[in-house]
Amino acid sequence: MDHSRAPLVEALSNYHRLGRYGFTPPGHRQGRGADDRVLDAIGADAFRSDVLAGPGLDDRLARNGYLADAESLMADAVGAEHAFFSTCGSSLSVKAAIMAVAGGRDGGLLVARDSHKSIVAGLIFSGVLPRWITPRWDAERHFSHPPSPEQVRAVWERYPDAAGCLIVSPSPYGTCADLAGIAQVCHERGKPLIVDEAWGAHLPFHPGLPTWAMDVGADVCVVSVHKMGAGFEQGSVFHLQGDLVDPARLSACADLLMTTSPSVLVYAALDGWRRQMVERGYELLDAALGVARRARTELAEIPGLEVLEEQLLGVEASHDLDRLQVLMDVSGTGATGYQAADWLREHRRLDMGLIDHRRVLATLSLADDKQTVDTLVRGLADWRAAVKPGEAPAISLPSPEELQLEQVQLPRDAFFGPAEAVPIERAAGRIAAEQITPYPPGIPVVLPGERLDSAVLDYLRTGLAAGMNIPDAADSTLATVRVTK
């Protein structure tokens, strides 16, 4: 295939070149109707490129084959059989995959418990019963690793009628599962493997990165191009191969969830990023990996800052690691990750990719270079010099056993059923009717249908007081928790 082409980018360029004007949405009419203050903030070009959105977008792109051509080129670029573009993020893509594989079936779906909240949302929408796979746990570091093939096999043996399996890899921390081994376990049973590879859009384009899910037999793979690629926010692709998932069913499930007014900006960025990766991906990612090596070396010289790498790998840990995700343990400084991130944001205007009670993460990409790394290293060195011992607030950390809450109701039934708000002090033993999710990374501590325990509630309460961000709780102060009646 001719990867020098970008059909959607070309369609947009031609629209401008021909001087078209549409009496269709969007009503801003290429920015003519937009407020000048908005134009000053985000630029007129953003509105000029929004011309194809609205009811006519799918007609124009589909009639001329632009979208189909772009998706075919994407599939060819990464070695998949089919690719589907989404302008609603991987949150939509993973929901469509859940519905296509397990929707309307009684056996449930094997799901790694370290899943993003969008996966839980898919379980709520679809009514699919989760058969949870417990992640591997480092109790000393209070850190979860992706499940092993043996753990997946054990859950399959308990629930042989499950429709398929869903694994998150890479995790938001950059840790990766043994996808080849997990795919083999699933395929021994003739069941599909879905991989939420939202953090792995770049993986097919450099051998120094972790394994690309399609290369080791995953049936459906979901990627967020805005995370580790160069797409706009909400730009996602889900890839398909093999005969265990019907492409027509997958497309139909996506259509149920997809907006009917997708943004051509998002589409075009997906298309252009694919062309960039095919033409220059190895070169750009090779440079990025070199930048990451330098960042890791220099950050490790800051006293009390532990740059995690080998600690995350091994038989009882993760199978592989994306080294563009630079994870730093700051507990040796006496501070929390929340405190470090707050200081960097306030004093150095630096935003970190992920924060927890003892870690911060810097996500590097093909856009980073010596200058951006120097800024990162200086910022963390300055923070380290400003840290005062003994300032870290106490956080009540549960054991792995206490974190593993009992699932006693379907997520959908608990979420949509009769519920009430009770004081957090009286919530232990009750069944949660909401998600409660520290963000980032967006992995729920509590799911609808799980029985709450005091250890998890204490963790959330003390974590919130220490700086944890919990955006999805009905009561953002956690004075009360929503539970089933």
Short account of what is shown:
The protein is an alpha+beta fold and about 475 residues long.
Description:
The chain is α+β, with helices and mostly antiparallel strands. The chain folds into 3 domains: 270 residues, Type I PLP-dependent aspartate aminotransferase-like (Major domain) (Aspartate Aminotransferase, domain 2, 3-Layer(aba) Sandwich), CATH 3.40.640.10; 106 residues, Aspartate Aminotransferase, domain 1; 85 residues, Ornithine Decarboxylase, Chain A, domain 4 (Alpha-Beta Complex). It is 39% helix and 14% strand. It is built from 17 helices and 19 strands. The protein has a 7-stranded mixed beta sheet, sandwiched between helices. A 4-stranded antiparallel beta sheet has the order 11-13-15-14. A hairpin with a 4-residue loop joins strand 4 and strand 5. Helix 1 crosses helix 12 and helix 8 runs parallel beside helix 9. The protein is globular, with a radius of gyration of 23 Å. About 1% of the residues have low confidence.
Any idea what the radius of gyration is? 23 Å
Helical fraction equals 25-40%
Low-pLDDT parts are 53-59
On the 0 to 100 scale, the average pLDDT is 92
Tell me the domain tally: 3
Q: How many β-strand runs?
A: 19
User: For this structure, what is the CATH class of the largest domain?
Assistant: Alpha Beta
**Largest sheet at a glance?**
7 strands, mixed
CATH superfamily of the largest domain: Type I PLP-dependent aspartate aminotransferase-like (Major domain)
Which structural category do the helix and sheet elements fall into? alpha+beta
Stated plainly, the CATH topology of the largest domain is called Aspartate Aminotransferase, domain 2
Strand proportion: 5-15%
